[in-house]
């Protein structure tokens, strides 16, 4: 084999190995990045659910306070009529 062909074989082999390693590590990095995105989304959903529950609790407390205030001002029946 001539020196030029040996050099060409070496360069192409090295390029192939470098390409395979680059793709391998690139895929690992992308997989880790996607996993981080999933974790971030789950955390955002958990925080949103907590906010929604807190808002519902506040609405419930406000309705309870309004009901108590209205009961002081006016008489309230249960709607079943006289017995």
From TrEMBL:
<feature type="transmembrane region" description="Helical">
    <location>
        <begin position="6"/>
        <end position="25"/>
    </location>
</feature>
<dbReference type="GO" id="GO:0033617">
    <property type="term" value="P:mitochondrial respiratory chain complex IV assembly"/>
</dbReference>
<keyword id="KW-0812">Transmembrane</keyword>
<keyword id="KW-0496">Mitochondrion</keyword>
<protein>
    <recommendedName>
        <fullName>Cytochrome c oxidase assembly protein</fullName>
    </recommendedName>
</protein>
<comment type="similarity">
    <text>Belongs to the PET117 family.</text>
</comment>
<keyword id="KW-0809">Transit peptide</keyword>
<dbReference type="InterPro" id="IPR031568">
    <property type="entry name" value="Pet117"/>
</dbReference>
<dbReference type="Pfam" id="PF15786">
    <property type="entry name" value="PET117"/>
</dbReference>
<keyword id="KW-0472">Membrane</keyword>
<dbReference type="GO" id="GO:0005739">
    <property type="term" value="C:mitochondrion"/>
</dbReference>
<keyword id="KW-1133">Transmembrane helix</keyword>
């Amino acid at each position: 084999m001539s020196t030029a062909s040996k050099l060409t074989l070496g360069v192409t082999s090295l390029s192939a190995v470098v390409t395979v390693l680059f793709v391998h590590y690139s895929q690992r990095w992308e997989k880790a990045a996607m996993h981080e995105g999933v974790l971030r989304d789950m955390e955002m959903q958990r925080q949103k659910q907590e906010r929604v529950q807190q808002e519902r609790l506040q609405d419930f407390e406000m309705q309870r306070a309004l009901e108590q205030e209205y009961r002081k001002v006016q008489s309230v029946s249960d709607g079943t009529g006289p017995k």
